[in-house]
Amino acid sequence: MTTALWCLMITALIPTVLSFIGGYARHKELGSADNKNPRQQYAQSTGLAARVFAAQQNAWEGLILFTAALVAAFVSGVPQEQLATVSIAFVVARVLHAVFYMADRDILRSLSYLVALGSVICIFIMGA
Fold this sequence. Notes:
With 128 residues, the chain is mainly alpha-helical. Helix content is 86%, strand content 0%. The chain has five helices and no strands. The protein has helices spanning 3-30, 38-44, 47-76, 80-102, 106-127. The longest helix has 30 residues, at 47-76. The chain is elongated. The two termini are 23 Å apart.
């Protein structure tokens, strides 16, 4: 498997990891994790649990963009060596985005988001 596909797999796992962290945070904040209505419970949460849920939602959105960019790059025949570096930059930025979201570091979170978005744009441009 190429580096870009490994990065895609890691990116796909980020929302799942955040889901587990969010369940723990909900349980800690609200006394239990309501698995029957987790979204309703997230609406009641504040602090870490709310931030983890928001980070998870944003991670799904990032996965969609990254997947589309990689598909375009693969179809266009972009060399794997070129994709590797940008894909790694994307993954690092997305992991940091989640960490900064949970840590309530809004400026760093926004910067990491912009780096990830720039990586996606770069991949699309490489495939143009």
